[in-house]
Amino acid sequence: LQGAASYLGLTEEKLHEQLRDGKSLADIAKATNGKTVDGLKAAIKAATVKELDQAVKDGHLTAAQRDKIVAALDQRLDDLVNNTPPKGGPDRPKFRWR
Description:
Layout: H1 2-8, H2 12-20, H3 25-31, H4 37-57, H5 63-82
């Protein structure tokens, strides 16, 4: 979520607070002046690709593994930004976004 927080001009903690309040990333982007959902998706992808590139450079991933993860990310970005975190009830532990 670091890429999303950076794009939205929020700290990760502030972003987590809004997510815990039941907002989706898309809701937060739409409420942030001058920010778009498409821009948010691009920022998330760019941050993820940067981390994956570093993992390849460090020898933790192969280039093929990186490409597979990026392809899967492209397919899941809409779900990632539009879904809201599940709400924890009194009998459930609090859900934490990472």
